[in-house]
Structures are given as C-alpha cells and as structure tokens.
C-alpha cells in the first residue's frame, strides 16, 4: 500500500490552514507557499500517473480497514489522469492570478485555492460515495469563497445564487445516498456495484430512484440541461482566474457520472439498464443547442465564454451518454481539451476586459497590444469551436466517430456540427467587435493626458495563457499516445469486475 | 411510527421547497434549513427505524442492535449543513449590504446597465 495516493489530498489540506492562519498578512509568503504547493501537486500527480500506468487498480485503505467497512481511496488510470489535469490547470491559474494581482484584491485567495484543490483531488480519488459527497462539499465551500473573492455588487448577488443552487444540490445528493443505503446497505462504490447487479429488475425501483437522483446532482455540477442555468451568471461574475479554475469543476460532475454511472449503474446491470442513457443523451443534445444559442446571443464577453463552456459540456456528455469504451475514450480526450480551452478563453478574456474596463461586445477604441490579444483570442476560439489544427478538432472528430450508432448518429452529428457552426459565428462576431472594428475607432481624445493608457501586459501575465495554448498544441501533436492511454483508461473503467475485485480484495493479499 | 416519520419528512421537504422558491434571501435560508432537517431525518431512517436498541454489538447475550452507520452519516451531514448555513447567511448578508436589496434574483436590466458603463 503506497502512501503516494493520499498525498494530493493531504498536501493542500496541510498548506491551506498554514497559508490561511500564518501568512494572511504576507501576500509574498502566501504566493510562494501556494506556488510550491501547486508544483509539488504536479510532481505528485506525475508519480501517480506513473503508478497507474501499469494498469492495476491501486487501493489506499484509510486506517487500514478492509474495503466495505473502512473508507478507501482508489487510484486507477482515470483518477490519475484527472489529478494531473487538475494540477496542470491549477498551476496556470495560480500564475495568472499572481501576475495580474487578482489574488491580492481580497483576502485568503491562496488558502481557499488550496482547499479547492484538496476537494477536487479528493473527489477524483475516493472510492466511497459518501466521501464523494464530503469532498464535493469541501470543493464547493472553497468555491463559494473564491467566487465572491474581491466582492462587488453583481458578484455577491451571483455568488448568493450559486450558493443556494449548490446547497439544494447537496440536499438532493444526501437524499440519493439515503435511498441507496436503504436499498443496498453500503456506500462503497465497488460494494454497491456488486450488490446492485444482484438485484433483479422488478425489485430495483428504489435503486432506480437513487440512480436518477445522483444523475441530477452530478448534472447540476456538470451544467447539464435543465440544471445548467446557474453557470453563466456564476462564471461571468466570478474573478476570471477563478472562472478558469472552475473549468475543472464542471468536469468533476462529468467524472462522477462516468465513475458512478459506469461502475455502479453501468451497462449490464439489470435494475438500471438503459435508463440513464435514455435521459442523459437528449439532455446533452439540448445542452449543446443551449450553449450554441447562448454564444450567438450573448452581449458580453464573459457570458459568451460561459455559454461556450456549456456547449462543450454538452458535447462531452453526449459521448458519455453512450456508455461504451470507444465513446468514453473520445469523451476523455475532449474533456482534457475543453478544460484547457475554457481556461485559455477565460484567461485571455481577463487580460482584454481589464484593459477595456468593460466586457460588453461593442466596438470601442483599441487598447494596447490589440494584435497580440487578438491572436491569442483567435487561437483559443479555434480550440474551443473545434477547428483544425488544435485539439478541439481532433476531440470533436473522435466524438463524432464514436457516435456512429444508427440510433444516435442523426441527433448527435446534427447537434455537434450545427452547434460548432453557431459557436464559430458567435465567437467571430465577438472577436470582430472586440479587436477588428475597434481599430477603426480613434482613441477618445485624451484631454492633455488625463486618460492614462492601460499598462501593457507583462510577459508574466501572458505566460499562463500561452502555457494553456501550449497544452492544447501538445494535446494535438501527441494525440496518438494520449489516445492510447485514454483507450486503456476507458477499458479499465468498463472492467467493472476488475474494479470490484481490486477494491474488495482481502487485506492479507497486499 | 413509520407513518409519523414519513409524513414529517414529507412535510418538511414540502415546506423547504416552497420556501426555497421565494424571492427573498431569508425565506430561502429557512427553506434550505428545513430541507436539511428533512434530509437528516431521512438519512436516519435509511438504516431502518428501531426503538430502544443500542448501535453497538453486544458480546453479552443476544441483544439486537440498530445500524450505526446512518447515525455517523447524519452526524457528518448535520455538521456540513450547519457550516453551509452559516456561510450562506454571511454571503446573503454581504450581498444585502452591497446591493441594498435582499432579492435573490438578478434583474436583467441591472446587468445590462453594468455592461454599458
């Protein structure tokens, strides 16, 4: 039993209170500590990837209690991948927040940031569904603080809505867990999977209710129709680096659907056969449409990007809804891609908006470095909309290729292709209003130097978004090795008996 | 007793949902508190209702016992929902002080004005 598995949870959990209590008056010290923590997290996630690479499912028993009785952490290829994704994204976001000074506009940014990482990593690692709830609460309570970081009227009100929405979601989660426990007597994911596949279809009514409730809870996190409405207000009012970090939060919902609804209520389970995909698929199609129309109709830059995030979650969940290894491979590739693409867009939008002092999509005089920002924005949009040569194109191609079944092809292809087109149109309109038309407008006559031109972006401010772009380029160049890793990942995910026997293995065997 | 517990959970949930759909922060907070009470009782009953039984296995005699796990779950859920309610109260207070209104919905004209400026 290797102790590496619990480090992604323990490290931020130790750093956060230290930063919060001992370094709250010293932003430099907090920055250094937070940075060191994020770099260490990246190193740990590399080790975990190397451990998971051999294909075995690693178990960490807390307190060394055997599986259905104690709490276990489970490391397989999927969770190692998600931890790595979190660590890389966290590093970029942290660099951006430090370079632009966002972290100094309110208190406790770094402590909350570390708590957020702890919750996300825990949610990816846990093998117990009640623990999943606990880690969800940890990441949510940190995200409440980050969401309203630096305050302001609109942000506080949007933050309030976000908190209420998620508290209602948590209550639903508890109802689902109670139902599940009442009908099976366990909350360990592997044990649940073993017990639920033994329940005959005509006695599985309560289990179906629980599966559906869990589905709704995860859908709230993943911003799936009809519970996506919190996302635009939240993301567009959150501080931009926080919105970029939240790009991984929607993926936590998608991960939970993948994990729970594949392993526990997965294909081949008599009680819930065909029920989840029958609901998930149409909902995901509508989500794509909503995202596309939102991108087309948005009048401000931040909501525009938020709607494109909704659209990408729709594309991701269409592939998840098929519940087949091939489609899951495509979904995972698209998940990595859309995380970085969304982060890219939010980071560049922050650089642009902070210089224009407004995020409305109306032409106004060009600010400094119009060309550089336009180029970065253009590249990010190419990635988000799924145009070649960046990884969005490959991701959408994989998803389309996986969705060739006769009963899904019409809806899925129409939605994804038309959605991409609308997204391109919406972004093209936004880009031309922001960057192109603005060159035709003269700068407002500065009355003897009253208006000072906004500062040029320092290299430190541009680096994080460049790193995110580099990640997207790398993802497209190394698409082959990444896809083969993801293929093994989804094969491992769909090997339910392998997961169950690994987690429930007797302790003596280790 | 099953009827009593079930109808109590149902009433609290109904009241909670009704209050949650109000437009002001105070009823919404009360609604969420009611919902969390409902879910706590619900979790408690998910280990079957039992009276006068200890949640510990006794090695002396054939004493029946009640499932201890839901009690641990409820304890965790109570702690979390209590903390969350406190956070919610603070955030809604902050939102009220910032915007001078305790409405929970965001008026679309507000955001447009905000965008225009």
From TrEMBL, chain A:
Predominant localisation class: membrane
Membrane topology per record: Multi-pass membrane protein
Keywords: Cell membrane, Membrane, Transmembrane, Transmembrane helix
Pfam families to which the protein is assigned, alphabetical: Proton_antipo_M
Chain ranges passing through the membrane: 6-23, 35-53, 78-97, 109-126, 132-150, 209-231, 238-258, 278-297, 304-326, 332-353, 365-388, 408-428, 465-486
Localization terms from the record: Cell membrane; Membrane
Domain NADH:quinone oxidoreductase/Mrp antiporter transmembrane: residue ranges: 128-412
Function recorded in the entry: NDH-1 shuttles electrons from NADH, via FMN and iron-sulfur (Fe-S) centers, to quinones in the respiratory chain. The immediate electron acceptor for the enzyme in this species is believed to be ubiquinone. Couples the redox reaction to proton translocation (for every two electrons transferred, four hydrogen ions are translocated across the cytoplasmic membrane), and thus conserves the redox energy in a proton gradient.
Family that this chain belongs to: Belongs to the CPA3 antiporters (TC 2.A.63) subunit D family.
Protein name: Monovalent cation/H+ antiporter subunit D
Lineage: Bacteria, Pseudomonadati, Pseudomonadota, Alphaproteobacteria, Rhodobacterales
Gene: phaD
TrEMBL record, chain B:
Pfam families, per the entry: Oxidored_q2
Bilayer topology annotation: Multi-pass membrane protein
Subcellular location: Cell membrane
Chief subcellular location: membrane
Keywords on record: Cell membrane, Membrane, Transmembrane, Transmembrane helix
Sections of the chain in a coiled coil: none
Family of this protein: Belongs to the CPA3 antiporters (TC 2.A.63) subunit C family.
PANTHER family: ANTIPORTER SUBUNIT MNHC2-RELATED
Official protein name in the record: Na+/H+ antiporter subunit C
Provenance organism: Marivita lacus
């Amino acid at each position: 039993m290797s102790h590496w598995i619990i480090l992604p949870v323990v490290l931020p959990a130790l750093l956060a209170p230290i930063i919060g209590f001992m370094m709250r008056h010293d932003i430099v010290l907090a920055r250094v500590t937070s940075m060191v923590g994020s770099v260490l997290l990246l190193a740990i996630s590399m080790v975990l990837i190397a451990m998971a690479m051999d294909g075995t499912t690693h178990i960490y028993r807390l307190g060394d209690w055997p599986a259905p009785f104690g709490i276990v952490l489970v490391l397989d290829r999927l969770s190692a991948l998600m931890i790595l994704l979190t660590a890389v994204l966290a590093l970029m976001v942290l660099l951006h927040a430090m370079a632009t000074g966002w972290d100094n506009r309110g208190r406790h940014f770094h402590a909350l940031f570390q708590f957020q990482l702890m919750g996300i990593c825990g949610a990816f690692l846990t093998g117990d569904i009640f623990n999943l709830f606990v880690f969800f609460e940890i990441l949510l309570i940190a995200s409440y603080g980050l969401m309203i970081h630096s305050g302001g009227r609109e942000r506080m009100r949007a933050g309030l809505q976000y908190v209420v929405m998620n508290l209602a979601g948590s209550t639903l989660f508890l109802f689902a867990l109670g139902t599940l426990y009442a009908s099976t007597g366990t909350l360990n994911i592997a044990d649940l999977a073993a017990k639920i596949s033994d329940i005959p279809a005509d006695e599985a009514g309560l289990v179906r209710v629980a599966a559906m409730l869990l589905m709704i809870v995860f859908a709230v996190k993943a911003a799936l129709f009809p519970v996506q409405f919190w996302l635009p207000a939240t993301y567009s009012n959150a501080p931009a680096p926080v919105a970029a970090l939240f790009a991984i939060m929607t993926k936590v919902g998608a991960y939970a659907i993948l994990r729970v609804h594949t392993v526990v209520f997965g294909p081949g389970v008599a009680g819930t056969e065909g029920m989840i995909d029958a609901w998930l698929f149409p909902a995901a199609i509508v989500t794509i449409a909503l995202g596309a129309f939102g991108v087309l109709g948005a009048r401000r830059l931040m909501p525009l990007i938020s709607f494109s995030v909704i659209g990408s979650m729709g594309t991701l969940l269409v592939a998840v809804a098929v519940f087949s290894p091939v489609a899951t491979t495509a979904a995972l590739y698209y998940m990595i891609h859309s995380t970085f693409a969304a982060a890219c867009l939010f980071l560049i939008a922050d650089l642009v908006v902070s210089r224009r002092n407004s995020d409305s999509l109306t032409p106004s005089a060009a600010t400094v470095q119009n060309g550089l920002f336009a180029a970065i924005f253009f590249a990010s949009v190419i990635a988000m909309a799924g145009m070649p040569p960046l990884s969005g194109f490959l991701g959408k191609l994989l998803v389309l290729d996986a969705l060739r079944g006769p009963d899904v092809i019409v809806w899925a292809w129409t939605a994804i292709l038309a959605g991409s087109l609308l997204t391109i149109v919406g972004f093209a309109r936004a880009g031309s209003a922001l960057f192109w038309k603005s060159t035709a407008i003269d700068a407002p006559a500065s009355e003897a130097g009253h208006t000072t031109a906004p500062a040029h972006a320092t290299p430190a401010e541009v680096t994080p978004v460049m790193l995110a772009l580099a990640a997207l380029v790398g993802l497209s160049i190394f698409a082959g090795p990444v896809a083969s890793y993801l293929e093994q990942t989804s094969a491992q995910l769909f090997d339910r008996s392998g997961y169950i026997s690994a987690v429930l293995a007797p302790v003596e065997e280790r | 007793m099953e009827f009593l517990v079930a109808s109590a959970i149902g009433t609290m949930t109904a009241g909670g949902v009704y209050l949650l759909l109000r437009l002001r922060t105070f009823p919404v907070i009360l609604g969420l508190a009611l919902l969390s009470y409902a879910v706590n009782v619900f979790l408690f009953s998910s280990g079957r209702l039992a009276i006068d039984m200890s949640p510990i296995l006794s090695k002396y005699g054939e004493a029946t016992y009640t499932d201890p796990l839901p009690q641990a779950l409820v304890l965790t859920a109570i702690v979390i929902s209590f903390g969350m309610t406190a956070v919610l109260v603070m955030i809604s207070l902050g939102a009220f002080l910032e915007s001078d209104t305790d409405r929970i919905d965001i008026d679309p004209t507000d955001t447009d004005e905000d965008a225009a400026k």
